[in-house]
Every structure is written in structure tokens, then in C-alpha cells.
Design a protein that fits this description.
By secondary structure, the protein is an alpha/beta fold. Helix content is 43%, strand content 15%. A seven-stranded mixed sheet has the order 1-9-8-7-6-2-3, with helices on both faces. A four-stranded antiparallel sheet has the order 10-11-13-12. A two-stranded antiparallel ribbon has the order 4-5. Helix 9 links the parallel strand 6 and strand 7. Helix 1 runs antiparallel to helix 12. The longest helix has 25 residues. The radius of gyration is 23 Å and the shape is globular. The model has no long low-confidence stretch (mean pLDDT 95).
């Protein structure tokens, strides 16, 4: 094992047991090209890094690229494997602003990822080995299987998502307490595909269940997929990330927060995300060690995340109109959510065609067709009603985030009609 990896593991102490075999081998190459370049950063003559500069020292950039973007030419330079320091600081501040319960708690600086999927892959490689078990709800984003099972070879165990219209915490706890010393638990609120966020009562029970499993000796990595964070449309819903509760819950619980600008700030193509770590009793040195392992993973895979995207995010966060514009976009989605509630309330007959799954947030909601196969319904919708949907786990996912309000009634009528066609 590389000496740098060994040193990071020694710094982590018992927390190194959260890591997979790959995670234990991972390190950031401080003494390699990047480390040597950092040492030479203030030199008058710096011949260390693979970038090009004009004779005056400014970045050597073609105008046909730079003229299309109103950003400093520095945005065309490498951002570094940890991400731009200014962006990391800004996002950390926003995490506390959006999650007041984090104030005063100890957690790492975010490391910049190529949006949230990349954060999932980093989490899988650092924590989920071939002998590790990943626990997730049975209604889950199908990319989890690709990342954790197909890419790194972990076992993916599912628990029942809903019981009596609420999150089935008992099923989750049972999965955590099942044989196996280490578990990787994935929690995704608002959930994709269902558009469900834990209620305040759900959240209390979820945290208590993880604490019970940790107290029983289970070592648990809780991966919090916060892709749709903030898009909550009802009262009584847990409005913060569960990262705040898990950050100091137990020395046997490592919290990994995955978030980003993609869904929160409506910039899907920007591909700027973050991975943040916390566990009870963590020292600054231990958190920096986790940051270094994450940055080493970034370095080994993509070198660093788009600098242009990071610069655009920094500029947007500093814009005095940022908050008001974000509120305007949120309002668009909330109005559609409220319209759906009105449509469903005014059409009780739809219950004969589909069951509405619990939803209260996010981009999506799901229905379960009555008496017919969901895939058959999906195909019928395309062929007869020119309506596209997604089928996951026997459910039909409807992305109301993409549908104008005046077409929502037609969407649900089409689904009901397609089911009735197949019921005959």
C-alpha cells in the first residue's frame, strides 16, 4: 500500500474501518505532480503544470471559446481535484444556511464532484467493497444498482419503502440489524422515483433506527442522496437534510452527504456537485483525510471537475438576485404539484385505474396501475396517447417537472384511459 494511503488510514484510526479495500488504498498524491506544482506556485518562473499561458501570463485561450462566456479567463484553467476553494467555502456556507441544525457541528469541507452521480461512484469505491452490503428502499433510482452492484460488486439489499402511506422505518431497521457487521445505507429524500420526503415523524424514527443498529455494533455508512433537496411542498415534512442528525449520531455512523447545483439550482448540464463527510468525534485531521481520499478518487478518474461550471456557480451564488430567482423557479414546480393534488381530488374514479403512491416533494410522483402490467401501460401510452412515462419497480413514474400545468389533467386522463384499455 502506498505510504500516503497508509498515513491517511492511520490518521482516520478506527474510522478507517468504514472504508472498502479500495478506499483504504486511495490517497491524494501530495508528493507527485500536483504536490510539486503546489510548492512552486509562488515561484517567479513556474515550469511545473500542463497548462499554457500568453506572454503576459494570462491563460492562453481561443476567443471563439471565451467570447461565448462572460467569465474570467481563469475559468479555462484546471480547478484542482478538491475543487475551487471559493466554491467549496460558498457551498459549505449554503449547507449551513439551508440546514440550520448543522450550525456548530463538525463536518468536512465539500469536495467538488462531477454532479451527484459522480459522488455516488466515489462513495461506492471508497466505502462499498465486494463483501459489503448496500441497503436501499425497494423504490429507488435504478442507477444505484449500476454504481454499487455492477461497478464495485457490492450486494444490494432492498427493504419495503412504504407502509400505510408512510416510510417503512421498521423494514429499514430490520435490514440494518440483519447479519453483517457493516452496512451502507442509501437514503434519498425527496425520493426518486416517488417524490416522497420523510415527514418529521419519519425522520425521528429513521434516525432512532440507525442509532439502534449502531449501538448494536453495526458500522453504518449513511449515504444521503440530496439531489432534490429543498423541493418540499407540504407542511409537516422534514425540511433539512438528515446529514445534520447523522453527523454526530454515533462513532459507528459515517454520514456522507451528496448534493449539488443540478436539481437545486436547475442547471442540469453544469455538472457541479459535492461530497461531504461527518461522524461523531471526528477531528479536523480525520475529516481532511476523508477529503483527501475523495480528491484522490477524483484525480484517478477525471482529474478535476469543470472549472467553467464551478466559476459560473460562484458567480451565481454571489448574485443579489440568486435567492429571488430560485424562489421563482421553485414556485413553478409547487404550482404544478398543487394542480396535481386538485386533479386527483376531483377524479376519485381514477382509483379504479391506478393507486397513487405517497408523494409530497421533488420532481416526480408515481402511480401503480390496477390489474395490469406497468410496462404494458407505458407502451400503450406511447402508442395510443402520445404520452411518455418511465416504469420502475412496477410503478409508472410521472415527471411533472417537465409538464406545463395546462397539460397535467390530460396526462392523468391518458394514464387512466390506457389502464382501462388494458383492463378490458
Amino acid at each position: 500500500m502506498n505510504q500516503l494511503a497508509t498515513k491517511l488510514n492511520e490518521t482516520l484510526g478506527s474510522a478507517a474501518e468504514f472504508l472498502s479495500a479500495t478506499g483504504k488504498r486511495m490517497y491524494f498524491p501530495y508528493g507527485g505532480i500536483l504536490g510539486q506544482g503546489a510548492e512552486a506556485k509562488t515561484c517567479d518562473i513556474n515550469a511545473t503544470i500542463g497548462m499554457a499561458f500568453e506572454e503576459d501570463g494570462s491563460p492562453l485561450v481561443m476567443e471563439c471559446f471565451s467570447k461565448s462566456l462572460n467569465v474570467d479567463k481563469k475559468a479555462f484553467l484546471y480547478a484542482g481535484s478538491f475543487g475551487l476553494p471559493a466554491l467549496r467555502e460558498a457551498w459549505r456556507a449554503k449547507q449551513v444556511e439551508k440546514n440550520p441544525s448543522l450550525k456548530g457541528k463538525t463536518f468536512s469541507n465539500p469536495v467538488v464532484t462531477n454532479a451527484l452521480t459522480h459522488g455516488l461512484r466515489i462513495s461506492a469505491e471508497l466505502f462499498a467493497g465486494e463483501n459489503d452490503e448496500v441497503v436501499a428502499p425497494d423504490l429507488f433510482w435504478d442507477n444505484y444498482a449500476l454504481v454499487f452492484t455492477e461497478a464495485v460488486g457490492s450486494k444490494l439489499t432492498h427493504f419495503n419503502t412504504f407502509k400505510d402511506g408512510r416510510f417503512d422505518t421498521a423494514a429499514m431497521k430490520s435490514a440494518l440489524l440483519a447479519p453483517g457487521e457493516k452496512k451502507i445505507l442509501i437514503l434519498n429524500f425527496p425520493n426518486n422515483p416517488t417524490g416522497y420526503t420523510a415527514t418529521i415523524q419519519d425522520a425521528t424514527e429513521i434516525v432512532a433506527a440507525v442509532k439502534e443498529a449502531a449501538d448494536a455494533g453495526k458500522r453504518i455508512v449513511v449515504v444521503l442522496d440530496d439531489a432534490y433537496f429543498g423541493l418540499v411542498y407540504e407542511d409537516g415534512i422534514h425540511g433539512e437534510s438528515l446529514f445534520a442528525e447523522f453527523s454526530d449520531l454515533s462513532e459507528n455512523v459515517l454520514a456522507v452527504k451528496l448534493d449539488g447545483t443540478t436539481k437545486e439550482d436547475y442547471v442540469w448540464g453544469l455538472r457541479v456537485g459535492f461530497i461531504t463527510f461527518a461522524f461523531k468525534g471526528a477531528t479536523a485531521e480525520q475529516l481532511k483525510a476523508l477529503e483527501a481520499k475523495a480528491a484522490g478518487n477524483v484525480r484517478s478518474g477525471i482529474s478535476n471537475v469543470t472549472s467553467i461550471g464551478q466559476h459560473l456557480a460562484i458567480r451565481a451564488f454571489a448574485d443579489p438576485q440568486y435567492a429571488s430567482q430560485k424562489a421563482e423557479k421553485y414556485a413553478v414546480l409547487r404550482r404544478r404539484y398543487e394542480k396535481i393534488r386538485e386533479i386527483l381530488a376531483s377524479h376519485p374514479e381514477y382509483a379504479k385505474s391506478f393507486e397513487v403512491m405517497p408523494f409530497n416533494s421533488g420532481y416526480f410522483m408515481c402511480v401503480r396501475p390496477v390489474g395490469v402490467d406497468a410496462e404494458d401501460v407505458r407502451r400503450r401510452l406511447i402508442e395510443k396517447y402520445s404520452t411518455g412515462t418511465i416504469v420502475l419497480s412496477g410503478l409508472i413514474r410521472l415527471a411533472f417537472s417537465t409538464i406545463p400545468s395546462d397539460k397535467l389533467a390530460t396526462l392523468f386522463e391518458n394514464v387512466a384511459c390506457a389502464v382501462r384499455d388494458l383492463q378490458k
